[in-house]
Predict the structure.
Amino acid sequence: MNEHDLQEQVLALCEGLGLLTHHEPDSRRSNRGWPDLVIIGTRVLYRELKSPIGTLSHDQKVLGWKLKAAGQDWAVWWPKDLGNGNIERQLKEIA
């Protein structure tokens, strides 16, 4: 599963749970390393999406560390997280 397909499935789950989402369709218009999705429910999740062979860039790692240091919920989701129910579980927790 590629990142686009993963994103589409995550967005569908968010919509079904009534969660607000933001995805910048043109990453050239956002800060380098900014996460793929910002998901808003009872908390805000910052999620980077990766294919099974995807890797985090230096900028993505730095931004993730900074968000976590600021007390934010940042993580990387992979297709396996969709398959094992981890993504749906996290989304339901904030719905």
Notes: The first helix runs from residue 3 to 17. The two ends are 25 Å apart (CA to CA).
